[in-house]
């Protein structure tokens, strides 16, 4: 039986979102990068504008095969992975990353996994607290220029290195981000321990690896709030969210679904600088 390789699932050359903790700022550095899958356990990352990563640093890279996928459904049938690795070698625009742990999902199923011998998931002893409620009382003006970007990448503060996941989203002209999930998910539990996050939106539909300098994207740093169902803004945002992401409609019928509001504190838009 032919072995399924990482490159079979996500491709050999693709766009990635990389996150690493910055020991000097106690924050997170986030990059949109080109990814070449070398083997099932090693990647080459390309940063056209340079990077601050160092040998032996822990880096998480979000990988998926969204390019060429025009329609989504509730099962999110794209191959996707939060690839956790350690920096091996570094040049001014590239790094080599050796895997320590990842799972590749298709829908809700794990179709491939890797774990380096001796690796264990770090224990998270941080205290969980309820998220603050959003200050919004009505929906802000929606950014319709992002209508074709159905999916973005959420980066949350897991122990040792960031966690990444794809999310359907709605955005405002003031760079608010709205998404829904269940409180029982890993990402939601991380937000209860640290309500800071990053959200990356890229023009993946027009991405070409060969013209890296023309990559167009936004990286939004923000604080995460909950929008309770009792807030009048909930129903307004729900309607707009479903208009953009109709396959998400069924989730709103589930009592445990929760709406989150990322209020931007910093936005990076390279092509607008």
Describe the structure.
This protein is mainly beta. The protein has one domain: Electron Transport, Fmn-binding Protein, Chain A (Pnp Oxidase, Chain A, Roll), CATH 2.30.110.10. Helix content is 10%, strand content 42%. The chain contains 3 helices and 14 strands. The protein has helices at residues 6-10, 186-193, 232-244, and strands spanning 13-22, 27-39, 42-46, 58-64, 79-90, 94-106, 109-115, 151-156, 163-168, 170-171, 177-181, 196-202, 217-227, 258-268. Strands 9-8-12-13-14-11-10 form a 7-stranded antiparallel β-sheet, with helices on both faces. Strands 1-2-3-6-5-4 form a 6-stranded antiparallel barrel. The N and C termini lie far apart (51 Å). 38% of the residues are buried.
Summarize the structure.
The chain has 273 residues and is mainly β.
Topology:
Elements (H helix, E strand, L loop, with lengths): L5 H5 L2 E10 L4 E13 L2 E5 L11 E7 L14 E12 L3 E13 L2 E7 L35 E6 L6 E6 L1 E2 L5 E5 L4 H8 L2 E7 L14 E11 L4 H13 L13 E11 L5
Antiparallel strand pairs: 1-2, 1-4, 2-3, 3-6, 4-5, 5-6, 6-7, 8-9, 8-12, 10-11, 11-14, 12-13, 13-14
Which properties best describe this structure?
273 residues; mainly beta; Pnp Oxidase, Chain A; 7-stranded antiparallel sheet; 6-stranded antiparallel β-barrel; 3 helices; 14 strands; 10% helix; 42% strand; globular
* Unreliably modeled segments: none
Would you identify the CATH architecture? Roll
Question: In which order are the strands of the major sheet placed?
Answer: 9-8-12-13-14-11-10
Elements, N to C (H/E): HEEEEEEEEEEEHEEHE
The total strand number stands at 14
Anisotropy-based shape: globular
The count of helical stretches stands at 3
CATH class: Mainly Beta
Mean pLDDT level: 92
Query: What is the CATH T-level topology?
Result: Pnp Oxidase, Chain A
**What summary fits the major beta sheet?**
7 strands, antiparallel
Q: Identify the CATH homologous superfamily.
A: Electron Transport, Fmn-binding Protein, Chain A
What share of residues are in beta strands? 35-45%
How many domain modules? Answer: 1
Euclidean distance between termini CA atoms:
51 Å
Tell me the structural class.
mainly beta
What is the helical fraction, as a range of percent?
Answer: under 10%
């Amino acid at each position: 039986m032919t072995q399924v390789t990482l490159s079979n699932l996500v491709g050999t050359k693709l766009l990635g979102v990389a996150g690493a903790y910055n020991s000097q700022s106690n924050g997170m550095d986030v990059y949109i990068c080109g990814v070449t899958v070398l083997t099932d356990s090693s990647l080459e990352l390309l940063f056209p504008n340079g990077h601050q990563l160092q040998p032996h640093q822990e880096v998480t890279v979000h990988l998926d095969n969204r390019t060429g996928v025009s329609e989504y459904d509730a099962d999110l049938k794209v191959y996707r992975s939060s690839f956790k690795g350690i920096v091996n070698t570094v040049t001014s625009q590239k790094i080599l990353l050796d895997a320590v742990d990842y799972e590749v999902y298709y829908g809700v199923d794990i179709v491939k996994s890797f774990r380096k011998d001796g690796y264990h998931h770090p224990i998270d002893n941080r205290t969980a607290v309820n998220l603050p409620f959003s200050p919004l009382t009505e929906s802000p003006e929606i950014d319709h220029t992002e209508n074709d970007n159905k999916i973005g990448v959420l980066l949350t503060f897991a122990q040792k290195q960031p966690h990444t996941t794809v999310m359907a989203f709605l955005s405002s002209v003031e760079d608010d981000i709205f998404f829904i999930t269940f409180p029982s998910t890993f990402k939601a539990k991380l937000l209860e321990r640290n309500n800071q996050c990053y959200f990356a939106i890229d023009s993946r539909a027009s991405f070409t690896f060969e013209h890296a300098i023309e990559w167009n994207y936004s990286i939004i740093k923000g604080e995460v709030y909950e929008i309770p169902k009792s807030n009048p803004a909930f129903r307004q945002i729900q309607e707009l969210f479903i208009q953009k992401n109709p396959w998400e409609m069924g989730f709103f019928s589930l009592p445990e679904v929760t709406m989150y509001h990322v209020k931007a504190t910093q936005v990076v838009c390279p092509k607008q600088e």
